[in-house]
Amino acid sequence: MRRWTALLLPLVLALIPTTVRAAPAATVEVSAVYGTDNGTLNKELVLRASQGGYLTLQNLHVLADHADELADLGLREIRVDHVFDDSFYGVVKGVDKFDFSKLDAVLKPLVDHGIRPWISLSYMPGAFATNGLFSPPKDYAAWGRAVDAMVSHYAAMPGSNYRGWNWEVWNEPDNKGGFWTGTTAQYNQLYAASAQAVRHGDPTAKVGGPGVATPTVGLLGGWLDYIAANPGIPCDFVSWHSYGPNDFNSTQDIRGEISRRGIPAKQLYITEWNSTFAMNNGPGTWPDTHQTASYALQRMYDALGETGLNGVHFFSGLEGWRPSADFNGDLGLLTVDGRRKAVGNAFAMFDALGNTKLSTTISGNSGTATYGLVTADSAAKKTTVLLWNNTLNTTTFHPSVSGLPYASTNFAVTQYAVNAQNSYSDNAAGQKNLRPSAHEPLRASNRTVVASASNWSSTVTLAPNAVALIELTPSSEAPGSKPVPGVQSTIDFARGVTVAPSSSYTNAGQGWGPSALVDGRRYSYTGANEGNPTMGWTSAEHPTATASESVRVDLGATRTFDAVTLWPRSDQFGDGRGFPADFTIVGSNDGTTWSPALVTKTGYGAGAPVLGPQTFAAAGSFRYLRVSATKLGLPIPEAAGNAYRFQLAELEVTAPITLS
User: Fold this and answer.
1) Which residue in 244, 386, 390 sits closest to 315, CA to CA?
2) Does the pTM exceed 0.70?
3) What is the DSSP letter of 297?
4) For labelling, which of 73, 395, 489, 589 has a CA lying 20 to 30 Å from the CA of 548?
5) Tens-place pLDDT, residues 376-426
């Protein structure tokens, strides 16, 4: 993960343009022939992400809980760094003393959802550091044993999904003043200790590096010289990062550097890429919108054509630079609270393509900025056309496919779009209380059934930075336009409303306050890279669990809902604590007369931490809703000793809704 400062601002600004300002183009013709295979579409190459080491990821639940959403985007692999940071996973408890339980809590859900972890071996635990997190170790042998222990731990897991991972030695060691304070020689020594440990811990694993920020000869060249001079040191791949351009031409340069030194060919990986490495570009800037979607598809297509390139990892999977903001111009496929961004739908579109590329002729295009892919899934007799317009001009496409297997059957033509209507625009239009919002998922914009035919053609007009996916599938329906289903969503009536607690500890700098109970942040974040963290609401302190506290929300009008969800505090320090043991949930329309209890709980949690969202069936029509605790749950260790409090990260009052 790249850090940047005001000193880098001119460079950041130089990287902002991600689209081509083409002259008004003629219509782009995209013609393909079904059955004329042009090779296999290598989805594995591009459906990868690099997870940024945001401070919000110190919450062990947030990445794990979004593994299903990341898998839905088609991701095959996620690169995870900070694995040795004390403040993230606390793996190293001392020399040759290890605890992998926290790291397990994050990596196992990824594997369970079919996502392979790629591990960046960073950064230096306090037990080994000579001078802080980014320093060389005091004892390279002890560091190597820690790496061996980690690799061996996962290789010993049941099943085959924990072996054969890629292990990358460090992250951006060329980022002076950033992630490595040692010399190139010290990095080479770190690499040797790490690589030998990886090979010992899992002989099927791949190891490499150096994951440099800039693919120039500097540290990278010094490391390659070391690899050339020490062929006995394991090295399976070379990795680097690429921010800004519309291509991956740096691959050619790296291949040349390897060849010039007489090093046998290595696998090549770009383990971070995006249009910029700045993570606070501001709400509604290009990373929040469809501009990054069209840019990403152009670059993903370019990656497919780079000889020797084995994989590219989009930065980032889940974002979190400024956790208090719904959108901040951050770089993720998902926002900090799990909203799917337009670029996430671009990944989902790529994943929806068939595995076989069809022979395709494209003319009238502006390079690969106005371009497309046509694929087939012969088993399902599905044909898929993906078109993107990564320019600042409206472009008309004429896609056509001949030789289709629909001569004796009708077929459906379903079109999906990524354009100016997306999760950011929904949020700006007031849909922040809808999950998902109207244009957040990848949804069909229109669907038509066509009479049996062997040929198909259409006209698709794409506005600047728009993307279209068109699927042709066999259908038994009669020809004609067909309705498309609405988006099944949930409305949260409590988002952003007035909160009235019986007592409260408020500290914006620490993320505590009544308004944080309904800010849309479902997790507790003790830190933030920028701005304030957000923890939730907490009552005043009590010496024992025998205390009464309550919190009331004013929904603004009478609302009909069917569920109340209470999200417990979830940071590492107080995970699952502060959740009430005995409590009721009641409703009111005047704030004075309260209904019989909608929910009554006694001894909730049975003395154990309460983890994850707690959803209660609580149907009713009320303006006010109150949660009243008569006995508090597990105490929180604080400076003065154990403190009993009523604490929640978020409160939601919800009902299902269908969005057209």
Assistant:
1) 244
2) yes
3) H
4) 589
5) 999 999 999 999 999 999 999 999 999 999 999 999 999 999 999 999 999
